[in-house]
Amino acid sequence: MKRTLTTFIATLALIALGAGARPAGAAGVTNAVAAAGTTNIVASSDGKFTPSTIVMHVGETTTLHLTSSGGVHGLVSNRLHIPLTRIQPGKAVNVAVTPSKAGTYVLPCAIFCGLNHANMKLTVIVKQ
Ligand SMILES: [Cu+2]
Fold first, then answer.
1. Could you list which residues have their CB under 5 Å from ion ligand 1?
2. Same domain? 70 vs 26
3. CA–centroid distance, residue 69 to ligand 1 (Å)
4. Are residues 44 and 78 in the same domain?
5. CA distances for 66 relative to 20, 81, 113, 125, angstroms
6. Are residues 14 and 47 in the same domain?
7. pLDDT (tens digit per residue) in 41-100
8. Structural domain of 19
9. Is the domain of 18 the same as that of 78?
10. Closest C-alpha to 77, from 101, 59, 47
């Protein structure tokens, strides 16, 4: 019985370690070149989207993989057909975007997140 309990606790510790390692892994992916069609964007508590500028193409679908490293943030754009999307720690959310018109779109953070909220924006450059 004692041995079973020890194994159980060891398993729990491994699960906890695995869960703890996940945010670090996700952060590591942030600056990597995104997989085809997917762009990773991290919102942080210091009022930044990283990367702060992304490029898309007219008629091509890009999936935004949104995560937060701290605080609750939001993204929305009527012109890019992005519904109000809540970005919060521990809950990655994907939004598929297919731009229909070239241009530069500046998306301010859509949910008040603190002192740096007013400066928090994501710039989307849509090319033909
Ligand atoms: Cu904000």
1. 73, 109, 113, 117, 120
2. no
3. 13
4. yes
5. 19, 16, 16, 17
6. no
7. 999 999 999 999 999 999 999 999 999 999 999 999 999 999 999 999 999 999 999 999
8. 1-30
9. no
10. 101
